[in-house]
Specification:
46% helix, single chain, three-stranded antiparallel sheet, 8 helices, 5 strands, alpha+beta, two-stranded antiparallel ribbon
Length: 173
C-alpha cells in the first residue's frame, strides 16, 4: 500500500506541482522531486526540496530541456527506482520505525541515472525531508577540477563508490 502511495505522489511530482506537507514527509517523494526538478531545470522546485547550499548554480540547468532531450529525461525519470540498504539514521543509530524521525535524521538512497549510480542524501529538517545537494555540487566541481587520483577528494569519491557497491575488499585498501 505504501508503494502505491509513493507512486501516486511521484506521478503528481512529474506534473510540476509543488510538494504538499504530506509529500514533504515522504522521503522517496522528496528525493524524486529533487532529481526530476534538477534534470528538468526547475530551479524553484529544486530549491523547495533541497537544503540551501553554496555553489548549487553549478548543477542547475540554465534552461529547461525541450524536444528529444525532454523526452529522454522523461523516460529516464519513469525508470527511477530509489533504494537504500540502511535504515534512516540519527546520530549513527537506526531510527525506531514506529516514531516520527527526529530533525537531523539521514537517509541515503541510490538510483541509476543514465550510466551512473547516483546517491541521494536526505536530511530531516523542521520543514520535513530535504535533499542535501552538497555531494552533487562537489561532484560537478570536481569534474571541472582535473583532480589527480591520490588527492583527498578522489580518495573520498572512491570510498563512497565502494560503500555504495559493497566492495569490501576495495574498502580495506
Amino acid at each position: 500500500m505504501r508503494d502505491i502511495a509513493t507512486v501516486a505522489a511521484l506521478a503528481v511530482l512529474v506534473s510540476g506541482e509543488p510538494l504538499t506537507a504530506a509529500a514533504s514527509d515522504d522521503p522517496k517523494a522528496v528525493a524524486y522531486e529533487a532529481l526530476s526538478s534538477l534534470l528538468l531545470g526547475n530551479a524553484a522546485a529544486f530549491a523547495n526540496v533541497t537544503l540551501p547550499v553554496d555553489g548549487v548554480q553549478a548543477i542547475l540547468r540554465p534552461s529547461p530541456p525541450s524536444g528529444d532531450e525532454r523526452a529522454r529525461i522523461d523516460e529516464q525519470l519513469a525508470r527511477v527506482k530509489l533504494s537504500t540498504r540502511l535504515p534512516p539514521l540519527f546520530e549513527g543509530e537506526p531510527v525506531d520505525d514506529g516514531k516520527a524521525p527526529p530533525v537531523g535524521t539521514r537517509i541515503v538512497y541510490r538510483t541509476q541515472l543514465g550510466g551512473s549510480l547516483v546517491p541521494v542524501v536526505e536530511v530531516r529538517s523542521t520543514a520535513g525531508w530535504r535533499v542535501d545537494p552538497r555531494y552533487w555540487v562537489a561532484e560537478r566541481l570536481q569534474q571541472d577540477a582535473n583532480l589527480q587520483d591520490a588527492t583527498p577528494p578522489m580518495i573520498v569519491k572512491r570510498f563512497m563508490f565502494h560503500i555504495m557497491n559493497r566492495d569490501t575488499d576495495e574498502l580495506k585498501a
